[in-house]
Every structure is written in C-alpha cells, then in structure tokens.
C-alpha cells in the first residue's frame, strides 16, 4: 500500500512546517521509515529544558492521531507505564480532528494539559474521571482468563488460599470460586461460578498475599518476585498436580488496593503461575505466566445496564425454542432474567441452523438442553431450567413427572412467554395463564418471515386476552380488526429431505425482528411486576410488524400498534 506521506506529500510538508514553526526540532527515524513506519525523534523546550519525545504516525494517518512517547518522563497519570506513551486525547483519540490537527498542534495543546493533569494539579481529571488501574497496563498471556470475585480490600487479612476451577491449562482459563483465610474460612466467593460447575473439571488450590501498596507494571517474573518479598513462603512453589496429566502448577494471587473507579481504592488482583510438566520443552524448566484477570460480580455485570438489574427478581417461562424462541431465550438470559424456564420437545437439525440461535455443533440434541448448557455457561446470573416437554402429548404415563412439568409453566412465574407457533398450544397456554392470573406474552411470524405479531395480556379475567386477539384477526370485515398478516405464497413452503412435515421458509434476520419486540415486552412486564418500574412503557396490546410491502417487496420493518379492548364475542369474559 502507498504510504500516507507519499499519497499526500502536501500533508507531510504541512506537518514538518508546523513543527518548525512551533520550535520543535525533529529528525525522521530512517530505520523505521525503511520498514514503512514514520517515526520522528523530537526535542521540545519545556520549562527551559530540552524534552525528548518520540512520535509514531499511524498507518492510516491523518484519520487517527500520532502516538507520542516521552522516554525520559515518569508521570503518575496520563502516561502508560512501560511504553511511556502519553495519553493526550480521550480514549481512542475521539477528540482528534483529522482535517486541522497536526502532530505539532497535538503536542502544543495537549502536553501542557498532561502536566496539569498530574495528581494534586488542578486539571487532574483532564481526560474525564477515568480510573487508571495498574492491571490495564499489563500484558497477560494471550487467551488467558481468570474470573476473580470482586472483593472488599479493607477487610482482607494478610494472606490465605484460594480455590480455582480450571477449564483449560494453556493458556490458563478458569474461575476463582472461593478465597479463604489461613484458617480455611471462606472470605468471599464467586457469583459467576460455584463448585457445582466444576464437578468434572479440576479445582486447584492457590495462595494469595495482600500487598501493602499497588505494584508497578511488570511481568510474571516481577510479580513472582514481589509475592516472595511480601511472604517468604511464596518463594518456594507449592506444586499442585493436575489430574490426568503430569503437569504440576503453583498459582499465586497478589491482592491490593487499586484505582478501579476515579480516585477510588478497591480490591484488585494479579494472578501468576509457574508450572512444570509435559508442555515444558526443557526438563526441569518452569513455565511462568501472567494471566488476564477480570473482577466479577452481579453488580459489575449490571453496571453496564442498571435498569436491567430488576430483571433478576423475575421468572419467565418460555414455551417454544425454535426460530423465534431461541434468540429470545438468549436475549432474556443475557439481559439477566433471574430464572428462565425453557419448554420444548424438539431436537435440533443441522439444516435448521440457518434459523436457530446456535449452529451445527449442537445438532441431534434437544433444543432446551443445548440452550441450558450454553446460556448457563455464558450468562451465569440467570438460572436456566430446561424441560423437554411436548405440550398436549398423551403418550407418556409418567404422571408425576408431567404434573411437575406443567406446574413449572406457571408456578412462581412472572410472565408466560409463548413462542410455540402452534395455535393449539397457544390456546392452552392463554387459558392456563388466565386461570393463574399471570401476564402472558405471545409472538409468531408469518410464512417467509414477511410479518410478525407480538401480543400481551394481563392475565386478569376481565382484561383483553389471547382469544380476543384471535377474534380481531378472524373477522376481517369488522370495523376494528387486526389485518391478516402478510405472508409468502403457500408454494414457498418446502419439505427438506428426510422431514415428515413441510417447514416454512424464512430468514433468521427477519424473524428476529419479532423476537426482539417480544423480549422487550416480556422485560417490561417483569420490571413492572417486580416493582422496578412503575408502569408499562407500551400503550398497546398487539403490535404487527411488516417486513414486506403490499407487493411483497422488502421494506423497513414497520410496526403498527393496536390498543384493543376485550372483544365483544370473546367467550372468555
Ligand atoms: Zn378475550
């Protein structure tokens, strides 16, 4: 590719003139340039003294700002420890103006701010109140991950042990499930994983030590040394064997107060390990590694969407985990519904992956089993309960099991969510929800994914119900009606090879439009029901989305809301 300074020589000329005009002397690093990188060695007078700077232009200059390094400075803020890069602009350089800014203007305007932004200086928060935890500047092993329970440093004793459930050794992946004191008492534990998650995987003991102050940036060797300085016992490895391997590992955690929020002093952790065994190349040599740590808690999870925290108190039964139900299951778990009960009898076909939440890898399994496994693993703050149930099937004689399964549909449930795409099942569910007084949301899509419908009912006997919505759909001559959903012609139905029934045609992207709205309504119901929200955010009880126009041409998804009273002919009232 042509380099930017060759593509736009006038721009490069302007850069140089601006530096000269500002009295910044510079020379091009010819070694770097021969490799295609434009790097300048600069000298600028600062407080009457020459200050040495190095500037690297990005590949796509001027669309991103140059990176400026101050090798001789050692600043407490706004400089990356180790690389010595100055943080002159807000994260990702969002203040950079490609048309007018130059390296010279960047230095002239931002360098004084970097100095004014040091601790105790008036503009310490120049880049916004951004915390700078030391762990943000470390270089842990690629692909490693240790989920560490967020903790209160102020009540922490000096040292102890921890239990880590391991999923993978190299790179290390796992979760610290418990942190204990020296007497073996649990001080705090993970909210994301428990011992039950590791019944088939090793749980290994490690040791931790509290540091008097936050450490400087370093690597695995630096932190192993620091741990040994803090507690001499840690200089000797306490090897733990890993089952079914000849690998032995020694895991150490350094716990300390760090700035996780602006000027805060919260508990932070660094995890390092040394190991010997089958993957080390030289006999007797030890692998040392620094692992990526993330502090985990429910609170941390919901920090990115505080309004969703109320969902933790909700319980949703979702019936039908097919094309529109499976993405809904994922979104509800992701949003943080406290308990999600999934009901379906179907097994996933590999060919069905074209419109299912997950792909071919899960073919042959019950859909609810797959969703339970994947969603529980990935969204630990939602309890997923799978039930392989075919509603209406009379072939089973295990009445005790059936009793429990059917009760699970409504017992303790905040909202019954019907994605069954079966009129018989929907009829039953609506009657059951009304009988129990439970809010009920249903959704379905038309053939071809041309249109979809989301409806909701309060569950109160006197209110609009699912059956009312059928009456509104049924009588197309009535004054008040829900227009018949647009759908692909019947000939568009296909019978995939090996299937007994024809299946409908439709793309996941179109069907998901319906699922999304269904999920929003369910979340709204739950938030109202648990008292996290005073009233519903929606003033309709049926909404229809059209993804095609009258001629069957694709169009922007167009929602039409209907605010319907209960239907005069509905026999439910
Ligand atoms: Zn009704």
From TrEMBL:
Top-rank lineage group of the source organism: Bacteria
One annotated GO molecular function: ubiquitin-like modifier activating enzyme activity
Gene3D superfamilies per UniProt: NAD(P)-binding Rossmann-like Domain (3.40.50.720)
Pfam family, one: ThiF
InterPro entries according to UniProt: ThiF_NAD_FAD-bd, Ubiquitin-activating_enz, UBQ-conjugating_enzyme/RWD
Residue ranges occupied by any THIF-type NAD/FAD binding fold domain in the UniProt entry: 309-473
Signal peptide span: none
Protein name: THIF-type NAD/FAD binding fold domain-containing protein
Source organism (scientific name): Noviluteimonas gilva
